[in-house]
Design brief:
Blueprint: H1 5-18, H2 27-35, H3 46-79, H4 85-105, H5 125-139, H6 145-158, H7 161-184, H8 186-196, H9 200-220, H10 223-243, H11 245-269, H12 274-295, H13 301-312
Helix pairs in contact: 1-6, 1-7, 1-9, 2-3, 3-5, 3-6, 3-7, 4-6, 4-9, 6-7, 6-9, 7-8, 10-11, 10-13, 11-12
Length: 314
């Protein structure tokens, strides 16, 4: 089976959905509501943290169910138009491009209409967490809607129910994994999300650009060509690594060192706090260790990279 880069795009769309202005500021409230504990209480005991994590996982399962059902509906409907595949691609791609531009410029106000469920009392038990997740997925919020709609159009243009479901599962994972991490590190995540708000405008633009890219690829029918090209790049990289092992070891070792030490250099230049310096120093140390092992031919960074290209297509 040929790897599909659209899975990676769908996953990225889910991550950007989590980081959108509609979701990030509300994550502590969502998790407190789901877990039935306040943010300052979630880290006081392993029991309370465990409750939040379990119910967050069930919350994620709830909206995943909704998105997968939508994926089945859209991809099944798209399969009816396989004979007009070119027209479907052009229409779907054009819609996704417009949705992406609307995320950036907000010119189509009708897309800001939301149908969110408001619950004054949290449903009890594990089933209640699943129901909240399903309500979250069914109601959704306005600035996420275009991203979800774009992934659904991808599913519809795939012509296969199984492929469409995979796109929505990838999207749900991209959205759900940050929720799970926020549940695991509830107290710390609340503070980190507050600091992240300054970057929300840039994240909004990045989300719109991703949608525009997806729309263009759909319209010109180049998603599978992109996948084949990336796989070919992986094969070429593997062949070059085999033919030039010494140059490959030193080149990729140097690249790992640069990437790993860049955050530390930024932290030192900005006179960041002790915690930031310690974290970036650990990243630099791990990167240096990987680079050394690569030069000693114990590991192969080029092999990892080429394998990633060939397996996932991105």
């Amino acid at each position: 089976m040929t790897p599909d880069p659209t899975l990676a795009l769908s996953f990225a769309a889910g991550v950007l959905s989590f980081l959108s202005p509609c979701i990030v500021p509300l994550v502590p409230s969502y998790l407190s509501f789901i877990g039935g504990v306040a943010a300052n209480e979630a880290g006081e005991s392993a029991a309370s943290r465990g409750v939040v994590v379990l119910r967050t996982a069930l919350f994620v399962a709830g909206f995943t169910i909704v998105f997968v059902v939508l994926g089945v509906v859209f991809s099944g409907s798209g399969a009816l138009f396989t004979s007009a595949g070119r027209v479907v691609n052009l229409v779907a791609g054009g819609v996704v491009v417009v949705l992406g531009l609307n995320v950036i410029f907000d010119f189509w106000k009708v897309l800001n209409i939301e149908r969110r469920y408001h619950m004054s009392h949290r449903p009890s038990g594990h089933l209640g967490s699943i129901l909240i997740g399903m309500a979250f997925g069914a109601g959704w919020t306005p600035c996420i809607g275009p991203i979800l709609a774009s992934v659904l159009l991808l599913a519809g243009s795939s012509g296969s129910v199984a492929t469409g479901v995979l796109y929505l599962v990838a999207f749900s994972l991209g959205l759900g994994l940050p929720f799970l991490l926020a549940g695991i590190f509830f107290g710390r995540a609340t503070e980190a999300l507050k600091r992240m708000r300054r970057y929300l405008p840039a994240i909004k633009v990045a989300s719109g650009l991703l949608l525009v890219l997806m729309g263009v690829l759909i319209a010109v029918g180049r998603l599978q060509q992109l996948s084949a090209r990336l796989i070919a790049w992986g094969a070429r990289l593997s062949a070059w690594d085999t033919a030039n092992p010494v140059a490959s070891d030193w080149l990729f070792g140097a690249g790992v060192v640069l990437l790993a030490t860049a955050p530390l250099a930024v932290a030192l230049a900005r006179r960041a706090g002790l915690r930031a310096k310690v974290v970036t120093a650990l990243v630099a140390t791990v990167g240096g260790a990987i680079a050394l092992l690569n030069v000693l031919d114990v590991v192969s960074v080029a092999g990892w990279l080429s394998g990633w290209f060939r397996y996932t297509g991105l």
